[in-house]
Amino acid sequence: MAAFPFPAGARFDIVVVGGGIIGAGVARDAALRGLSVALAEQSDFGSGTTAGSTRLIHGGLRYLEMLDFRLVRMDLRERETLLRIAPHLVKPLEFLVPFYDRSLFYRAQLRVGMRLYDALSYDRSLPGHRFLGARETLAAEPRLCERGLQGAAAYFDAQVNSPERLCLENVIDARRHGAVPLNYTTVTGAVCAGDGAWTVRLRHTRTGADTTLRARVVVNASGPWFDRVATSLAPHPGPLIRTTKGIHVAAASASRSAVVLFAGDGRLFFVIPWLGYSWIGTTDTDFADDPARARATPEDVAYLLHAASPFFPCLRTGEVYWSNAGVRALVRKPGKESSVSRLHRIVDGADAGAPGLISIAGGKITGYRAIAEEAVDLVCRKLGSEAKCRTAAESLPGALAAPAGRAPSHLESLYGARADEVESLAREDPALAQPLAPDSPDVAAQVIHAVRQEHCVRLADFLLRRTLLGFRPDQGVKTMLAVAPLMAAELGWTALETAAEIEHYRTWVAESQAFRDGAGSAAGPRPESPRDPSAGAPTASSDTGGASAGA
Ligand SMILES: Cc1cc2nc3c(=O)[nH]c(=O)nc-3n(C[C@H](O)[C@H](O)[C@H](O)COP(=O)(O)OP(=O)(O)OC[C@H]3O[C@@H](n4cnc5c(N)ncnc54)[C@H](O)[C@@H]3O)c2cc1C
Predict the structure, then answer these.
(1) DSSP assignment of 318-367, as one string?
(2) pLDDT tens digit sequence for 345-380
């Protein structure tokens, strides 16, 4: 199979470097405006910071505290947009901010903050905030520590179970509108000719094949790789971003709603219901290494468990299944990591002698669509196009409102309206209707669909970014053995290649559990090994967890 679906030197209006949520959003927006687009992602779509996030679609109370009103307002507006264009993926979630032994002044501040948050989301469909007394708070969250509890503020934001699939749906829609998405394709450099057009070098990371394409505009949307990529594109004045690592752990469920807590050092963190777990995070520490190497250390995990267990004593002895890590790309500014604004910055290369280069630094998942719109507006100005942005009005391909009178099926909760593509494969070949594991609602047809329709190339792509199987307590290790032969047959892997894929995934799993080697004493005894999925354990089925909380 040819590595690239176009001849060397093929011409595009725009090439997007980086297939995270922001690059995918740019590709979709540009394609919907009729521009010809190539989207190059060095690994899998959505596998970078997008996969390392807390998975909230939120304005962010914390940013209100930082007086970042512009960011909060933009993200609250975008929260509404995403609830509308991706209702199968983005769901309302209730949050509680419990307060303990707090002064009258603190509680008055919290009231003002809540009113402001409501005011900034004046166009919301979600309920406004309310205050609960101690008894009501404990009724809502029975495992919350009672001592000193005075009450809680309750408010709504939203959650996306799979930002990986949110990213992918942008890629798929971009493709439907003519874009050429290329995963496992690294942009290795670019040269801008006298006529302003760029020659961009690409390398296929699986085959090592090289090619070039020509583009009138290059958009650097490489997230925490931003400065590395910028250096390979044009003379780069110096680092524009600051990179900080944040980790999460998937622990035995402690809360029903998302709970906002403060660590001993004053940092805000969350205990969130997600796929039957408590998803606890995050940390914020400077990280200068290759973002692909970010992992949770025992110290990171200990920090979170120490912070959370005074509020949820059950976390002292509850299981911690696995961890993940992501690297933020923050617009560079000195100061404490958590004090740096999350507001994005779009830089027009024209100001630095590279007129066809647009750089996107920073940003959140929540605001990705608006950030993409701003970037593509600039692209259009450069290309003399008057096409208007359509991404807020047009739903993503799987958009499916909750079916009336019943819960969505497992396939609907993953694929939304596109579930019928999987179902029709299973109807055509009954072998594909078979579950991938005895206790799994996922079926063989999903593997075939992922390879044929969703750019799924590696075993990890399927387990972590096409389905939620990799988020089960066993991280999909058992199912992997059923998936690998199906992918091998579809993609023509040799036995050696299949074994290498399995080994690659096992290594990933081992790394996400490596914290166990040192975190045992952090907050009480930790389990010896991950528990298998069983009654009462998290299921990582997309139709459980936070999505139901207050939806
Ligand atoms: C711990 C943590 C928690 C967060 N929680 C939230 C949250 O709850 N809600 C929220 O809204 N935001 C959250 N964020 C922020 C959010 O995750 C990021 O802002 C967002 O994912 C950034 O997307 P991106 O596309 O810019 O970056 P990425 O997802 O990292 O995508 C950039 C892509 O560029 C690719 N790339 C790099 N170099 C090249 C190259 N040379 N050629 C081709 N491709 C290349 C990378 O492989 C990568 O996939 C969180 C971030 C972190 C770290």
Answers:
(1) S-EEEEEEEEEEEE---S-GGGS----EEEEGGGGT-TTEEEEE---STT
(2) 999 988 888 889 999 999 999 999 999 999 999 999
- Closest CA relative to residue 454, chosen from 483, 418, 427, 479: 418
Which residues lie across from 346 on neighbouring strands? 360
CA–CA separation, 439 vs 202, rounded Å? 42
Radius of gyration of the chain (CA): 23
Is residue 335 pLDDT above 90, yes or no?
no
CB-ligand 1 contact for 250 (6 Å cutoff): no
Q: Quick one: tokens of 408?
A: 């969505």
Tokens found for residue 536: 């009462």
Conformational region of residue 353, where left means phi above 0, alpha means psi within -120 to 50, and beta covers everything else: left
pLDDT at 142 over 60: yes
Residue 90's pLDDT band (cuts 50, 70, 90): very high
The protein residue with its alpha carbon nearest to ligand 1, atom 37, reads 222
Q: What type of residue is 519? A: A
**Sign of the alpha-carbon torsion through 7, 9, 13, 16:** positive
- Probe residue for ligand 1, chosen from 4, 54, 226, 323 as the CB with the greatest number of ligand atoms within 8 Å: 54
Q: Which residues pair with 286 in a beta bridge?
A: 244
Q: Tell me: pLDDT of 91 over 90.
A: yes
Q: 449 CB contacts (<8 Å, ≥6 apart)?
A: 421, 422, 425
On the question of pLDDT at 423 being above 70, the answer is yes
Cβ 60 under 6 angstroms from ligand 1: no
Helix (H) or strand (E) holding 420: helix 419-428
What is the distance in A from the centroid of ligand 1 to the CA of 50? 4
Inter-residue contact 524 to 310 (CB < 8 Å): no
Instruction: Compute, in angstroms, the gap from residue 280 CA to the centroid of ligand 1.
Output: 19
Looking at per-residue pLDDT, the higher value among 27 and 517 belongs to 27
User: How far away, in angstroms, is 26 Cα from ligand 1 center?
Assistant: 13
> Residue 268 above 80 pLDDT?
yes
Our mutation pick for probing the ligand 1 site, out of 21, 41, 53, 71, counting the most ligand atoms within 8 A of Cβ, is 53
Name the average pLDDT for the chain: 91
- Encoding tokens for residue 86? 């991706």
Q: What is the average per-residue pLDDT within 250-267?
A: 96
Q: Is 243 in contact with 329 (CB distance < 8 Å)?
A: yes
Query: Any idea which of 57-66, 211-220, 311-320 has the lowest mean pLDDT?
Result: 57-66
First vs last Cα of the chain: how many Å apart? 45
220 within ligand 1 shell (Cβ under 6 A): no
DSSP one-letter code for 435: B
Helix 21-32 and helix 368-383, axial crossing angle in degrees, nearest 10? 50
Query: Which residues touch 430 (CB under 8 Å, ≥6 apart)?
Result: none
Instruction: Look at residue 338 in the predicted model and tell me its pLDDT.
Output: 59
Q: Is 338 in the pocket of ligand 1 (CB under 6 A)?
A: no
Residue with tokens 């997600």: 274
- Nearest-CA residue for ligand 1 atom 9 is 56
Residue 546: pLDDT over 90: no
